[in-house]
């Protein structure tokens, strides 16, 4: 791994700021001892670890409730068709249908809450908050992620779902590493701004107006999740309005402003949360292999 990566890096005359990957020991070692940079856990794998551990259990409860509801409905129909059926039996069957309908609704709500928590985990990991585009630090991101994981544990316990401690511990250990990405990214931005000898006023414009504008544009382009895409569209619209009204924006000539946007866009693209280009291919091959085994 190191020989191949180092050859390319030497050719381009560049260095690695951080390496995002799954928790494979070889890749962690490549980052720490080979490239001498931080190893950042992949947010895709973190969410996948949670999803594969609990999604099946939740879906299983919902599937069972739907099956019981269907059987209860069929039983009620048979009783109603029989004119000799006692009214007490009909009432009992109706109560059974109502009880299973309530159970189906309950597990549907649990599933929605579960998916929302997984979405929240992904939505937290940004240099700015997704809700209002306020700048945040690694420590603030880590606190939010831990709170979200605690909410997931509460959801599981409240609904009597099996607690898979090994999975929760594995995810817990990765939160600090994932959160560190935010401060690492801000470090590269501020190094650039320091070299440019920016005044505090222009630095504030770059960090709170220009960069979030280009960042949310990039994230909106990448994201496929419909709810997060809608949230990003809203926050981007608010940032665009601030950008257009800001005095610093109005002072710049079009060609100069275009140069600043290009600079900010490069930094926006450098915020890499997952090795998605690789994982998409691996996921495809894994599914193909599974399909062939089935055949």
Q: Please state the structural category.
A: mainly alpha
Strand order of the largest sheet: 1-2
What share of the residues does DSSP label as strand, in percent?
Answer: under 5%
Described by strand count, sense and barrel closure, the largest sheet is: 2 strands, parallel
The outline comes out as elongated
The tally of strands reads 2
Topology at a glance:
Layout: H1 2-12, E1 19-21, H2 25-34, E2 39-41, H3 43-81, H4 87-124, H5 138-158, H6 165-195, H7 200-222, H8 226-245, H9 247-251, H10 254-270, H11 276-294
Parallel strand pairs: 1-2
Helix pairs in contact: 3-4, 3-6, 4-5, 5-6, 7-8, 7-10
Question: Characteristics of this structure?
Answer:
single chain; 295 residues; two-stranded parallel ribbon; 11 helices; 2 strands; 79% helix
Q: What does this 3D model show about the protein?
A:
This protein is mostly helical. Helices cover about 80% and strands about 0% of the residues. The chain contains 11 helices and 2 strands. The chain has a two-stranded parallel sheet with strand order 1-2. Helix 3 runs antiparallel to helix 4, helix 5 runs antiparallel to helix 6 and helix 7 crosses helix 10. The longest helix is centred in the first third of the chain and has 39 residues.
Compact description:
The chain is mainly alpha-helical and 295 residues long. Helix content is 79%, strand content 2%.
